[in-house]
Amino acid sequence: MLSILSMFGLFRAAKFWVALVIAAANFIRIYAGIDLGLDEGTASAVIGGIGALLVWLIPNFRSQPQELPTFASPEEAVAAAEAQTGKPHTYTER
Predict the structure, then answer these.
(1) Higher model confidence: residue 6 or residue 11?
(2) Taking phi first (over 0 means left), then psi (-120 to 50 degrees means alpha), and beta for anything else, what does residue 37 get?
(3) How confident is the model over 40-57, as a mean pLDDT?
(4) HSE-up of 69 (CA within 13 Å, CB side)?
């Protein structure tokens, strides 16, 4: 789960957190025996519907577009790739 957060950030996963909280609330309701005055199936459907509504209401967050690097020559691109990965790279013309 931490890899998801490192990839997308805390707020990029906002819909995930809402769904997780609703699932936890439903689990706690069942485990603790909290009575909502409804039968088990209807109570689960109501909580699931509330969760779906909250997930729908939360907007999607877009990541900031990253600029792609431009290089003046293939040699410059190879040097940048080697600096980024630490491995030797080659370039051959086709």
Answers:
(1) 11
(2) left
(3) 89
(4) 11
